[in-house]
Amino acid sequence: MSVERYNPREAEPRWQQVWDDAKSFVTNTDDPREPYYVLEMFPYPSGRIHMGHVRNYTLGDVVARFQRARGKNVLHPMGWDAFGLPAENAAMERGLNPGTWTRQNIATMKAQLKTMGLSIDWTREIATCEPQYYQHQQSMFIDMLAAGLVTRKKSKVNWDPVDMTVLANEQVIDGRGWRSGAPVEQRELTQWFFKITDYAEDLLTALDGLTDWPEKVRTMQRNWIGKSEGLRLLFELVPGSDVSQQSIEVFTTRPDTIFGASFLALSPDHPLTTELAAGNADLSEFVADCHRQGTATETLEKAEKKGFYTGLYVKHPVIEGATLPVYVANFVLMEYGTGAIFGCPAHDQRDLDFARKYELAVTPVVLPPGADAETFAIGIEAAVDAGTIYNSGFLDGLAVEEAKKAIASHFGARTVDGQPQGRVEVNYRLRDWGLSRQRYWGAPIPIIHCEVCGTLPVPKKDLPVVLPEDVSFDKPGNALDHHPTWKHTTCPQCGGAATRETDTMDTFVDSSWYFARFTAPEAPTPTIPAVANRWMPVDQYIGGIEHAILHLLYSRFFTRAMKATGHIGLDEPFKGMFTQGMVTHETYKSADGQWLAPEDVRFETIEGERRAIEIQSGRPARIGPVEKISKSKRNGTDPDDILKVYGADAARWFILSDSPPERDIEWTEAGVEGASRFQQRIWRLVGETVEIAKQSAGIVRVSDDDEALSLRKTVHRAVHNVGGDIEGLRFNRAVAQIYELTNALVRSAGLVAVAPAARLAALEEGVERLIQLIAPMMPHLAETCWEALGKSGLVADALWPSVNPALLVDDEVTLPIQLNGKRRGEIVVPKGLAAAEVEKRVLSLDEIVRMLDGKAPKKIVIVPDRIVNVVV
Ligand code: ANZ
Ligand code: ZN
């Protein structure tokens, strides 16, 4: 056997070609083996892959290769989430055509992914920007419209008055357009919505069944759906109020705090506000101001609480003779509850901030456990936790939940305006999913507007509605709208002139069903239900926590909507969900405060301290904190460079080894170098094993001796544990086991050379198993070793080794050996071995013989199965 080093640069492309030629990873639905579907979130083709992709796809690939080895028929596809804003930005900034830009990026990134050696069925590749994909989305949109799952209603958008364009939420930064810097306005447009709220309760309760999801993700979904049980409550305006209504309806989840109410607040968009603003210029200015602030929840939470006093009063519903002032407040949303609230400052932080600002009463009515009713007072922090109701007449002494029930029945029995004053109501924070985007680079919404017949779906026979690619971006706004001919068409009903809908679909629609399309990517219908049902749900889905809410929730809704329209037979798309941590790296700054890339600095150790030096200038640089790899901080290494220098396997191994996959991992050069060295270690072990076998050719093999048996046990235990760890996605632990196994094998290789007749078989078995264990993680190295060991076929096709349960039984103990009370070594013996036999073995150990230096020990004390004490 040659002593050449393992050369990943030669081996990796070679094996990739072999797998390709053998169609190793092409999956057939008809395959009788048990199906297993593993999927990583598909990438956005931004230009080049980054370390986050490397991590994501490595994790998925280990699962895919492992499940294949377990005899499953594995589906492991890949595609591109190819519509979206960056393509339009590239068009505007660099004059590129969005389609061309996107497809070039796909080609680049696909080539990069291929160098990672992923076991992907590339015959199933899909890109959401191609009509072959989005025509089916259009077709399902039409089905869902027919099924009542799509509606059209008015809704607010962010409007940039300078660029004259609609902005996505992420393009509004601190209330201003990201390009123009102009204050953003809210505009009402008629838009399309998926009625996800119809499924709010189902989406919530079904979370309980998703036991293979991280608890954190389920909690995030629960909070997003935001179910609350509350009360709609009518407040009577004091007689003589000069407005068209006699009462104001609020929604509250804390009716138990009603005795502490000190004001009412309306949304700036409440009909009563609109009515009042018509005759009040100041109020109207206040409302306009609120509109400029935007409605993103985050903005609202951070924004200062502002109010405008309307001059109106309502009667306090439980305190005889008391009244409450009515404000318009910037933090009350029209879209939630009734668009009006009562404020109880003592027990709600927003209300408290508001009350302190406008000097309203703060009356505590819930006494925290252990507090004294006489002295308890509210400062700048509201008391939001449970307690006992007080200062509250007939509710005094009740617990919060009891008080809620009591007050609900109290108001239920009274009437205002001829209606019950209080009605129990369940509310969800979840809003319907607005899918219209006033954007060019997206799937056209298949709708035609006719002045005579109204709004009509495009007949299915006319699908796809193809997005034109001959567009220009010389005007602001939607390039699709500006296209000279595209939108002009004829009405499918009356044949008259009509126009196409120029809004396109939110790109979240594209990613809400791609997993189902992968099961039959060439079908003439969106899915082939029987095929989709065979593969789905995805057994293991893997992706970033940033998609824990919207993408997963939309996919769960869409799957239900597909079921309702006959495209699939299940509700939940993802059986197992795993969210990986981020890839981080140290940051560096030059002396003048510029970010430096890792390749711009070198390191020196001066007086034991690690220092960075800017290579170009030779000046000292500052080593900053470890942070998520980002372009802006320049703290990333291009995966391409790593793959070129160290190869895919080393990168994969390092990414799996360092920390649990759900945690952040710090990318270090030293780490990947270590992985590289480990590859060589395995390669040498394989070489040595082959060499010993060659030299022992012709010897008569005899049954295992103790050494061989002990090695076999180590091997079988490792196979058992590594399998369990991969199954449980504890890849770093699997790696640790493999390191240990390798150490044990390297150690025993020396011993085998001495007695090959009894030991060679165990070593060969061990090395072969080791190669199978590393195969899901370092597939190229594994194939090379497999070949060197003279095994037939590909290790990628080999079945996961079986374990002999008899060898898992732990019937050995490790006894520490003390010499005059100091620990000097240890010995592994069978459990319960007679003291005389232990003594004999200890005294024959090399290191003990050396330490005794010819003298006889005075005494040997053996505690069976525990310890050996030698006194000299
Ligand atoms: C009185 C009260 C007293 C409230 C108290 C809270 C604490 P969740 O639980 O998240 O559903 N609210 C109702 N409609 C609103 C709207 N359109 N915009 C902004 N806030 C609104 O929140 C329900 C609570 O949020 C309601 O209960 C209401 O304030 C407020 F000590 O009513 B509460
Ligand atoms: Zn018509």
Find the count of extended strands (DSSP E, 2+ residues): 39
Compute the gyration radius: what is it?
35 Å
Q: Number of helical segments?
A: 26
Approximately how much beta-strand content do the residues carry? 15-25%
Largest sheet: 6 strands, mixed
End-to-end separation in angstroms reads 48 Å
Cofactors and ligands present? ligand ANZ, zinc ion
The overall pLDDT average reads 93
Care to describe what's here?
This protein is 36% helix and 22% strand. It has 872 residues and is α+β, with helices and mostly antiparallel strands. Strands 30, 31, 32, 33, 34 and 35 form a 6-stranded mixed sheet that branches. A 4-stranded parallel sheet has the order 2-1-28-29, covered by helices on one side. A 4-stranded antiparallel sheet has the order 6-5-9-21. A hairpin with a 2-residue loop joins strand 18 and strand 19. Helix 1 (8-21) crosses helix 24. The protein is globular, with a radius of gyration of 35 Å. The model has no long low-confidence stretch (mean pLDDT 93). The structure holds ligand ANZ and zinc ion (ZN). The site of ligand ANZ has 20 residues, from strand 11 and strand 15.
Topology:
Layout: H1 8-21, E1 35-40, H2 51-69, E2 73-75, E3 79-80, H3 85-94, H4 98-114, E4 126-127, H5 131-146, E5 150-160, E6 165-167, E7 172-173, E8 176-177, E9 185-194, H6 200-205, H7 215-225, E10 227-236, E11 247-252, E12 263-266, H8 271-278, H9 281-293, H10 297-302, E13 307-315, E14 323-329, E15 340-343, H11 349-358, E16 366-367, E17 388-389, H12 400-412, E18 415-416, E19 419-420, E20 422-428, E21 433-434, E22 436-437, E23 447-450, E24 454-457, H13 479-482, E25 488-490, E26 497-500, E27 504-505, H14 507-510, H15 514-517, H16 529-535, E28 538-544, H17 550-564, E29 574-580, E30 583-589, E31 595-596, E32 601-606, E33 609-614, E34 620-628, H18 639-646, H19 648-657, E35 665-666, H20 669-695, H21 706-727, H22 731-754, H23 756-774, H24 779-788, E36 812-819, E37 822-830, H25 835-843, H26 846-852, E38 859-863, E39 867-871
Parallel strand pairs: 1-2, 1-28, 3-4, 12-14, 28-29, 30-35, 36-39
Antiparallel strand pairs: 5-6, 5-9, 7-8, 9-21, 10-11, 10-20, 12-15, 13-14, 16-17, 18-19, 22-27, 23-24, 23-26, 25-26, 30-31, 30-34, 32-33, 33-34, 36-37, 38-39
Helix pairs in contact: 1-24, 2-19, 3-4, 8-9, 18-19, 19-20, 20-22, 20-23, 21-22, 21-23, 22-23, 23-24
The structure holds ligand ANZ and zinc ion.
